[in-house]
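re: ur question from earlier - yeah i can do the single chain one, its not a big deal. heres the input i used so u can compare w yours
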Amino acid sequence: MDTQTNTKMKLSRRTFIRTMAGAGGGLVLGFYLPGANAAVVAPKPWTTPTDGTEINAWLTIDLDGTVTIRVPHTEQGQGALTSVSMMIAEELDVAWDNVQAVFADMNRHVNYGQEYVVTTTHGSQLVRQQHPHIMQAGASARERLKVAAAQAWGVSASQVAAKQGVLSSGRNSANYAEFATAAAEISLSQEPTIKTPDQWWLLGQPTPRVEVPVKVNGSAHYCIDTQLDGMVYAAVKCCPVPWGQLKSYDFDTIKDRTGVICAVEFKALEGKTFTSDMQNGVAIVADSWYRAKTALDLMPIEWDVGPNGNASNASQAAEAQRLFEVTGDVSNEVGTDAIGKIDRSENSLLAEYHRPYETHARMEPINATVSVTDDRIDVWSPTQDQAAPIRIIADHLGRDPKEIFVNTAFLGGAFGGNGGGATAVTKQAAEISNQLRRPVKVIWSREEDVAHDKQRPPVYTRLQASLGESGLPEAFFSRAVWFSHEGVVNHGPATADLSIGNMPYQVPNRRHERHNVAAHIPTATHRAPGANQNGFIIEQFADEMALEGGWDPLEWRLEMTKGLEPWQRVLLKIKEVSGFTTDLPKGQGMGIAVVEDHGSICGTCATVSVNQRGQLTLEKLVQVINSGYMINPLNGAEQIEGAACWELSHALYGGLDLDNGHFTNTNFHTYNLMRMPQVPEIEVHFALSQDGWWGGMGEPGGPPSPPAVANAIYFATGKRVRSTPVSKHDLSWS
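and the output i got, formated as C-alpha cells:
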C-alpha cells in the first residue's frame, strides 16, 4: 500500500526558530522556557551544557529520530540513567536503540519552576515514587505528537497510532521527528493516563544499563576527574574530634615549599550543624594535591578538642547499659502488659545486640571542584541531589542561585553518604575559590573522609520474649539505645528501632521502646537506614525464639506471618529455591532472614562454612525480593547483589573504633571491606505481588544478608554473633 508522508505541517516563526536552534537541527519536545536559546544534545551524559538554556525538560527528538532523554537524577551505579530513560521510552513508544540519556540542567530546574518535580536520588525512591510523573512526561509527548499529526492529516487524534517512533493513520505515515516541532506547540486539554504493567512492551524486560560501556572503557567522567585551566588543589584537615576548635597553625613552616600557594581557615558557624555545614579546620592550597597534602601533614596544628574528647565506644556502651534499665519512649505497643507477662513466664529468653558506628567508605573519596567568578559559579560535586550544590553554595556565599551551575558527573559510590550534599566539602571548595577567584579542587584524604563522614549511628538493643505452650512467643519487649548527632534521627526517631518496632511477627502482646541519645559524632543516612542495623538484630532474635520453642526457623517465620501475603510470598519462594536445612555437618550452616525496607520485602538464605580454627567462608547467598513490580530485572538483580556485598562488608569487617572523641581506624588497612575473592555466589529471585504497590530496589538486598550469615554461623559453630564486626568474634569450634 502506498503511504504518504506529512506535507501539511504549519510552522509559526517562533516554532521555526526553536526548531533550527535545536542541537544539530534537533526538534524539541517538552516544556518551553521563555527566552531560552539553543539546546545541545550532549554526546556523553556528563557534558550536558550548564548555561541553563535548554528549552526541553525531559526529551528532545533529532531529525534522525534520536530521542535524547534528560535525566534529573544522579547516576551512582543504581541505574538512574537507564530506568528514567526506560520509563519515558515505554510511554513515548520509541525504539530503545534510538534513545540516549544525558543529565538534566539543574540551574533551570532550581530557578525556573522545578520542572523535574524531584531531583534527589535516595531512599530507593526513584522508580517506586517518581514513576508516575516520569512516565507521564513520555505519555504527554506521545499524545502531543499524535495531535500534531491528526491536525496535519485532518483526522482525529484517536485515529492516529504512535508506535516505535512512527505515527500512522490509514495511508498516512511519518516519523516522530516530522511532527516534533508542531507537537511542541500543542497544549493538551487533559493529560493521558500512564500505562498499566500489563501494557508494557519495554518495562519488565532485562535491559543492560546505558552507562556501563563508558565505565568499562574508562571514559566515564567522575567529579574527581575534573580538570580546569588555572585550577589549584586543596587538602583539608578539620579537628579530629568533630566540632572541636582550631587553636593555631604555623603556615610559616611550610609556606616556602614548592607549589604551596596559601592556607585557608574554615570556621564553624554558631548553630550550623547540618551535614553540609562547616567544621573548624584549615586547608593548604597548592599547584597539585600531593603537594598540598604533603605540606598540610608537615604543618604544625594545635586543636582544642572540647568537651567530647573523652567519648569512646566504651563510654557509649556503659551509657547503653544504664539506659537499658530506664523506661524509654514507646514506639509501638500491641496487646497488654508485655513486660509483666515476660517477667511471670517460666519460659523466657533475653539477648542484647549491638551495631557500632560504620562509615560509607565510598570508592570515590569526598571531593568537590568549584570555580567562582563575578558572573557565575560552576560546581562539580558528587551529591545524590543534582540540585543541592546550587542551594548549598547560594546559602554559603550569598549568591543568586541563577548564577550557579552544576556540572553533573558520575558518582563513585554514595550509599546515602552524598544525600543532599552530606559533607562540607562543597562549601569548603566554594570558600577557597571565592577567596582566590580561581578554580579549586578539594579532595579529602581517606583518613579525613572516614573521620568526618556522616556515620551510621550505633545502636544497642535489649530484647526479651516469653513463649507459650506451642513454643511461639506470647509476649515480646525491646528497648533500643541509639546514638545520633544531637539526638536528631534521620527519617524520624522511629529509625532507632525500625524493623523491630514494626516487625511483621504477630506476637499478641508487644512493647517497643527506644532512647535517642545525643552524641557529637555527625550521623546521617546509610544504605537502608535503620533496617540494616536492626535487621541484624531482630532476625537473629527471631531464630533464637524459634529454636527455643522447638521450631524450624523457616517454618516459624511462615507461622508468624500468616495472612501477610507479601511476606508469605518471599518465605515460600525461599523454601522453594534455597534448599534451607538445619541438618548439616558441624562446620557448615545455612541461615535465613527476611526484612522489609523501603517498601520491599527481601529474604536471604546464606550458606557458610567455618573451619575449626574459626575461618569463615561465605559459600552462597540466595536472595528473594518482593518489590510489588519490577521494571528491569537485570538491574534489579545487580542492585540486590551490590547491596548484599556492601552491607556484608561492614557487618563482617567494618565498624569504627571511637576513642578519645575521634575514630582511630580511618583507612582500609584498619577498616576492612570485602574483597572480590570473598564475595560468595549470589542467586537472585523475584517473587512479585503485582497488586498495586511499588517497593524500592537499591537498598533492600542489604538488611537480611548479615543476619542470614550470622544465623548460618550459629548452625555451623553453635556460637551466636550478637555484635559486628563478625571478624572480631572467635568462631573456632571443636
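The chain has a mean pLDDT of 90. not sure if urs matches, ping me
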